[in-house]
Amino acid sequence: MRVLVTGGAGYIGSVVTEELIAGGHEAVVYDSLYKGHREAVVPGAKFIQADLMDGETLRRALSDEGIEAVIHMAADSLVGESVGSPAKYYRNNVIAGLALLDAMRDCGVKRLVFSSTAATYGEPEKQPIEETDPTRPTNPYGETKLTYEHALRWYENAYAIRYASLRYFNAAGATGHCGEWHNPESHLIPIVLQAAAEKRARVEIYGDDYPTRDGTCVRDYIHVVDLARAHILALGILDERSSIYNLGCGGDGYTVREVIDVAREVTGREIPVQMGPRRAGDPAVLVASSAKIKRELGWKPERQDLHKIIESAWAWMQKHPNGYESQK
Ligand SMILES: NC(=O)c1ccc[n+]([C@@H]2O[C@H](COP(=O)([O-])OP(=O)(O)OC[C@H]3O[C@@H](n4cnc5c(N)ncnc54)[C@H](O)[C@@H]3O)[C@@H](O)[C@H]2O)c1
Predict the structure, then answer these.
(1) Does residue 5's CB lie within 6 angstroms of at least one atom of ligand 1?
(2) How much is the average pLDDT of 149-170?
(3) Torsion angle of the four alpha carbons 147, 149, 150, 155, in this order, in degrees rounded to the nearest 10
(4) What is the pLDDT of residues 174-188, one digit of tens each?
(5) Structure pTM?
């Protein structure tokens, strides 16, 4: 298939592109580089630098490149920022996302895999979270992703654009070429590894009085390659139906302390920590169930072990001590 990857110069999008090419597909990366990195665009992919709001370039990309499907990863995704700047999140995650759907409708592209988020569930009533659980987002990031999912349903109804929406928590890990380099960084594993590499003084733990194994929050981490493969697998159902799938680590998740301990083992470095108070709105446990995607699509994550995830992220960080050179 010829696939347009929006946000393909970002962390997960670059690995999706890598996996598409490895699987014999052709990939066109569409990214404004507003957050992504030119160096993250995988060799072998065509690159178009433009914003989703640039309707003319987008329509030209879809029709001139003979695009058959879109994997939509371009978005803003910082929970805290979204609370202070909801307008930014509605503009990019909803309005720019709708501009993509309109361009797909106009150009006759009928398949979309959407990178959603498990933040659509808000504070879940039970663990692990299933697709049938209520969606009650507690921040504009989750709300805008859910709003987009609702739009997908109506665009399918009216314009026959089929979609697969993937909801997950924390992507982690790296490949040889692609790794995680955000600025600012808000994800635990890169933060912990930056502390191991002495690029930050310490890791702050937000609360150790939760009702969990060691008092710190439990979270779900998925290796970015397993995640990328799920996106590509999801392309396969779009001739038949639309669906929503959760992606989770398949176990009980890991506490913040467990992540830090594994990172100490993998790196052999000191990782100073500082205990801080709880953050408002942080649930004790967030773990998603992958039962549905395993059952229906045969998704088989191969890199679930936290050691493997952290080893790959550490190897990438050592090869790229300053991340991508164009880091802004
Ligand atoms: N990283 C995670 O743990 C995680 C978890 C759940 C869901 N997601 C979702 O996965 C997707 C990718 O996440 P990521 O961590 O790789 O993000 P990222 O910031 O690394 O990548 C996003 C890319 O999209 C591009 N982009 C953003 N808005 C654009 C626009 N309007 N036009 C063109 N390009 C644009 C940016 O330049 C960037 O390269 C996002 O949609 C995010 O919500 C991520």
Answers:
(1) no
(2) 98
(3) 120
(4) 999 999 999 889 999
(5) 0.97
Alpha helices in 37-95 (DSSP H): 55-64, 79-84, 86-89
> Is residue 112 over pLDDT 80?
yes
What is the Cα Rg of the chain in Å? Answer: 19
- 276, β-bridge pairs: 206
103 φ/ψ sector (left φ>0, alpha ψ -120 to 50, else beta): alpha
Please choose, from the candidates 9, 134, 137, the residue with its C-alpha nearest in 3D space to the C-alpha of residue 73.
9
DSSP state of 94: I
- Tell me how far apart the alpha carbons of residues 146 and 118 are, in angstroms, rounded to a whole number: 10
Q: From residue 255, how far is each of 16, 270, 301 by CA, in Å?
A: 27, 18, 20
**Residues forming a β-bridge with 80:** none
Please tell me if the CB atom of residue 78 comes closer than 6 angstroms to any atom of ligand 1. Answer: no
In this model, does residue 327 exceed pLDDT 70? no
What pLDDT is recorded for position 326? 52
Question: Per residue in 44-93, pLDDT tens?
Answer: 999 999 999 999 999 999 999 999 999 999 999 999 999 999 999 999 99
Q: Which helix (H) or strand (E) holds 31?
A: strand 26-31
Select the more confidently predicted residue: 251 or 11. Answer: 11
**141 an active-site residue?**
yes
Report the nearest-CA residue for atom 7 of ligand 1: 117
The rounded Å distance from CA 251 to ligand 1 centre is 26
